[in-house]
Structure to design on (114 residues):
């Protein structure tokens, strides 16, 4: 099993034809370095596909997930805004990977009367 201690959401849409080397180049240019046991998550412009790049300390793994209907819930970037990353929790990643509103996990854990 591949160990992932920290997971980063890369907000800049990427061409899903990009392989591990190109995505690694993007990570290094955006964040400064790719750390061992860190994962970097990318999406295409329509947010119908995601790629996860993981540095395991020895090499790089790249996994892809595609939705046939619907979209992944992704961060919206304003035009002209620089590429950014956001750290995700394991719960947020699990919710994102199945298409749930991962940004609202905290408020979904409480049911209250309005």
């Amino acid at each position: 099993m591949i160990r992932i201690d920290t997971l980063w959401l890369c907000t800049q849409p990427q061409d899903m034809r990009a392989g591990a080397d190109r995505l690694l180049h993007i990570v290094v240019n955006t964040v400064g370095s790719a750390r061992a046991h860190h994962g970097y998550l990318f999406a295409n412009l329509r947010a119908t596909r995601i790629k996860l790049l993981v540095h395991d300390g020895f090499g790089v793994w790249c996994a892809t997930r595609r939705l046939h209907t619907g979209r992944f819930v992704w961060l919206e970037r304003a035009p002209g805004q620089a590429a950014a990353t956001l750290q995700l929790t394991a719960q947020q990643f699990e919710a994102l990977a199945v298409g749930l509103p991962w940004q609202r996990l905290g408020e979904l854990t409480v049911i209250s009367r309005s």
Observations:
- The mean pLDDT is 82.
- The CA atoms of residues 24 and 34 lie 7 Å apart.
- DSSP finds three helices and five strands in the chain.
